[in-house]
UniProtKB/TrEMBL annotation, chain A:
GO terms for cellular component: CMG complex; GINS complex. It comes from Paralvinella palmiformis. Its main location: nucleus. Component of the GINS complex. This is DNA replication complex GINS protein PSF2. One of its GO terms (biological process) is DNA replication.
Automatic annotation (TrEMBL), chain B:
Its main location: nucleus. This is GINS complex subunit 4. It comes from the Eukaryota. The keyword Signal does not apply. It holds the Pfam family Sld5. Residues 71-141 form the GINS subunit domain. Signal peptide: none annotated. GO terms for cellular component: GINS complex. GO terms for biological process: DNA-templated DNA replication; double-strand break repair via break-induced replication.
Length: 185, 160
């Protein structure tokens, strides 16, 4: 799966905005949105929020978890735990990316947040890599991983499944010997 | 995230309650079908009722947009949503076509024996056409020039 498709999926998440225009309720296929009143906060899907922001028609309210203190705690927790910890949002990376790209002026302490999310991401990816390393080197047939987000899974999915496939093939060949090797193709 | 395990749950839902579902639910089902299809190595059952329902929704919405005033602010949001749904739809159908091209003869063989067909009518038509084109291409380009005992395409012996 392409990272842009993961981002596409994450754009369905809802987020609070404060519009600066007024508009009646709109009836989208995926559900109703609105009504919009200037200065009144409401929840909309992320893709609408980003679009409105691009047209300078709203102010995006950062989600609750997008806060330096909470993220620092999260980072600490992630560092101390051997396993993956639950993330405050399943699409934390994508949403941070989108909001910081399109609405950096609406996010308090945007730079610190960017750093923290990147740190958490790096920690988790390093953890994921080392656990995959252990997994592949040991002879177990399955492993359990909790709380991984879609984007994180996606960074390893294509490579890991292919690699395991190859390992399996190589193992088969070793155990069945050269005779199988020639007949397999 | 939707997984292959989720499929049995919505089997009844999509057929019996098809009429009673709201557009948003259908959209959810379509997204689920899209992701399942994307990650499954084989062709899954067809969801043509969902696809058709969504197509008619889009068409209806487009007619509404036509009627709306030009430059209306709402229109751009509606149009954006249509584009998003259309992307999911075409991505879903395209993944299926890719799989059909990959497993043409296997699918056509098993299709006859299955009780509920995996392919929709259009997909079946596509598969048959693709198969015959492929066969005639193979025959014209290579098999004709082979010794007579090797001139047959046996689906059991070929990988396609």
């Amino acid at each position: 799966m392409d990272p842009s498709e993961v981002e596409f999926i994450s754009e369905k998440e809802s987020i609070s905005i404060v519009p600066n225009f007024s508009l009646d309720k709109i009836y989208l296929i995926g559900g109703d949105v609105g009504p919009f009143n200037p200065g009144l906060q409401l929840d909309v899907p992320l893709w609408i929020a980003v679009n409105l922001k691009q047209r300078q028609k709203c102010r995006i309210i950062a989600p609750d978890w997008m806060d330096v203190e909470i993220l620092e705690e999260k980072k600490q927790e992630e560092q101390e735990s051997k396993f993956f910890t639950k993330m405050p949002c399943d699409y934390y990376m994508e949403i941070t990316q989108l909001l910081l790209q399109h609405a950096p002026d609406n996010i308090p302490k945007a730079d610190e947040i960017r750093m923290l999310v990147k740190d958490i991401w790096d920690l988790r990816i390093a953890k994921l890599r080392s656990s995959i390393d252990i997994f592949v080197k040991s002879d177990v047939t399955h492993a359990m991983l909790n709380y991984l987000t879609l984007m994180e899974l996606n960074t390893v999915r294509p490579f890991l499944t292919k690699a395991l496939d190859h390992i399996q093939q190589l193992r088969n060949n070793v155990s069945y010997g050269a005779a199988l090797w020639s007949s397999q193709d | 995230m939707a997984t292959v395990d989720d499929i049995p749950f919505d089997e009844n839902g999509s057929e019996e309650e098809g009429e009673a579902m709201t557009a948003a639910e259908v959209l959810g089902k379509l997204e689920e079908a899209w992701l399942n299809e994307k990650f499954a190595p084989e062709l899954l059952e067809n969801k043509s009722d969902i696809v058709e329902c969504m197509m008619s929704q889009i068409q209806e919405m487009e007619e509404n947009i036509q009627r709306a005033k030009k430059g209306d602010f709402k229109v751009s949001l509606h149009r954006m949503e249509i584009d998003r749904i259309r992307y999911i739809l075409s991505s879903y159908l395209r993944i299926r076509l890719k799989k059909i091209e990959k497993f043409t003869s296997h699918l056509l063989q098993t299709e006859a024996t299955l009780e509920d067909p995996c392919l929709s009518a259009e997909e079946l038509h596509f598969a048959k056409q693709y198969q015959s084109l492929l066969e005639s291409h193979m025959t014209n380009m290579a098999l004709k020039h082979m010794p007579p005992n090797l001139q047959k395409l046996d689906p059991k012996l070929t990988s396609k």
